[in-house]
Design brief:
- The structure is a single chain.
- It is flat, with a radius of gyration of 62 Å.
- It has 17 helices and five strands.
- It has a five-stranded mixed barrel with strand order 1-2-3-4-5.
- Helix 5 packs across helix 7, helix 14 packs parallel to helix 17 and helix 16 runs antiparallel to helix 17.
- The chain is α+β, with helices and mostly antiparallel strands.
């Protein structure tokens, strides 16, 4: 066994080559499974052949030479077997690739078949849907005959309804005042005297579009109106669409009201303000591009006849109005008195101090006194005269004298200021009192007469609202005046203190330079 293993290790290549020489043709003609079995048989065969060198020990030397030749041939056979092996592997790979390609082709074919099946199913659904649609259309065509009569009746009803709406529109249109009776052609349709035809529908559409176009035009024409005295006269008219009408009768310019009952224009009983009249006159003469227009179709213009100015509203506020007006008069008197007071006492502080500085530097004390005496009625010169009389005293004495003089002027400066603040506080309280009394009167009326007639309650409500409005109207300006005067007083006192200190500094600075 030891020698057998030795010869297997020494001559493995020769033995394997000899085995491949005999078995290669067989391996090339078999499948992969058979090749595996044959390789196992070859291994067994090689083990048996391995014992062949034991017998070769007793052979003569010429046989050894033949054996070498045999080995060479064996090596050549091994090389040929390797080449054939490589070729066999290449063919195996090609067969494997061919199988993979066949598999891909089969998968593509399966996918194409699935797509065809899906397309056929979709086509089948479309055909079924088309059949259902044809059935529905058949049923619909069967019902068309029944619905034609209903459509005709509905068409007739719509046309008559539109005719009624158009009639109402034409009656309410501002343009109908220049062309009364525009709605007459609609009467046969509304009264169902005739069946509506396409010609009637065309007339309805034409009238509607004509009204739309007219509502966006600005017309200047001459037409009859009823003036403020109730007389019918020809006047120059300015019609701004369906919104506003303006008339010019001689030198009178005013707004028009349109009555849809009589289809006529009526002059507004109250004339507009001069500013509005001038604007209308300029527009009618082509001098202005803008004009006043009432987009509420006369609603805002009618309010002009009911508007009350302040003097007309005051008597409606009841007895509380008069104390509020008295407060207003007192506040106006106080404000006028304070304005006159501060105007008379006002001086130019910078100019005054510059003049005094020059006189002090020149040691002209008499000139300073004379200059201040000429303005003694004003705040600042009067205070500085007090300090000038103490120019030879110490600085604390002079400052104390100035402070005393300023405190002496403060009551005159602050006079009536607290009174004005008190009036500003009382005025809204009186307005609130008038509101309470007005509401009390309103509740008394409700207790006596109920709420059936709102005009019975209007007196108390007017009293409540007018007093509140008047109280606030008086209080707000008084508060502003009080704030203004308070600020003016603070400014005046601060200015007097500042200039007094500056005057003292000038005197002692000049004295220090002199000594």
């Amino acid at each position: 066994m030891i020698q057998l293993s030795f010869y297997i290790k020494v001559f493995p290549k020769q033995i394997q080559g000899l085995a491949l020489f005999f078995l290669t043709p067989v391996l090339l003609q078999t499948s992969l499974v058979r090749r595996f079995c044959l390789r196992m048989a070859v291994n067994i065969f090689l083990i048996c052949i391995a014992a062949f060198p034991l017998l070769a020990q007793n052979m003569p030397s010429d046989m050894r030479k033949d054996f070498r030749v045999f080995e060479q041939q064996q090596q050549q056979l091994i090389n040929n077997a390797k080449d054939e092996k490589i070729q066999a592997q290449k063919e195996a790979r090609e067969q494997l690739e061919l199988i993979k390609n066949d598999k891909t082709a089969l998968q593509d074919a399966i996918g194409q078949l699935k797509t065809d099946i899906k397309r056929l199913k979709d086509r089948n659904k479309q055909i079924q849907t088309h059949v259902s649609e044809l059935k529905i259309e058949t049923d619909k065509l069967g019902q068309d005959l029944e619905t034609t009569g209903a459509v005709n009746r509905e068409f007739e009803g719509v046309v008559r309804t539109v005719a009624k709406d158009l009639k109402a529109m034409l009656l309410q249109s501002f343009q109908s005042g220049m062309a009364p009776g525009r709605h007459k052609f609609l009467e046969p349709l509304i009264l169902q005297e005739t069946y509506p035809s396409m010609e009637d529908v065309g007339m309805l559409a034409d009238s509607l579009f004509e009204e739309i176009a007219a509502s966006g035009r600005v017309n200047m024409t001459t037409a009859p109106i009823v003036d403020r005295q109730g007389r019918e006269q020809m006047a120059d008219l300015l019609i701004l669409g369906n919104f506003t009408g303006i008339y010019k009768l001689d030198k009178e310019i005013g707004f028009l009201l349109y009555s849809d009952q009589s289809q006529r224009y009526f002059a507004l009983s109250k004339l507009p303000s001069s500013r509005i009249k001038n604007n209308i006159a300029d527009y009618m003469q082509g001098k202005s591009k803008d004009v006043y227009m009432d987009i509420s179709k006369g609603g805002a213009i009618r309010q002009l006849t009911h508007e009350l100015n302040l003097m007309e509203q005051v008597p409606k506020g009841g007895p509380i109005v008069w104390p509020i007006l008295i407060i207003l008069g007192m506040a106006v008197l106080i404000l006028v008195e304070r304005i006159i007071f501060f105007t008379r006492k006002q001086t130019h502080p910078e100019r005054l101090m510059n003049t005094l500085r020059q006189l002090i530097i020149a040691q002209d004390w008499d000139g300073c006194r004379i200059y201040l005496e000429t303005m003694r009625s004003k705040f600042l010169p009067k205070i500085l005269l007090t300090a000038l009389a103490l120019k030879d005293r110490t600085r604390p004495e002079m400052e104390n004298a100035l402070q005393e003089a300023i405190l002496g002027e403060i009551p005159a400066i602050e006079r009536f200021l607290s009174t004005l603040g008190m009036l500003a506080a009382i005025s809204p309280l009186l307005g609130l009192l008038g509101t309470v009394t007005g509401m009390i009167n309103t509740f008394h009326v409700i207790t006596s007469y109920g709420t059936s007639d709102p005009r019975m309650m209007s007196g108390g409500i007017s009293e409540a609202l007018v007093t509140t409005m008047l109280g606030l109207t008086v209080a707000i300006p008084i508060m502003l005046a009080h704030t203004f005067l308070s600020r003016r007083v603070e400014t005046q006192i601060s200015r007097m203190e500042e200039k007094s200190v500056a005057f003292v500094n000038m005197i002692f600075k000049t004295w220090a330079q002199r000594h």
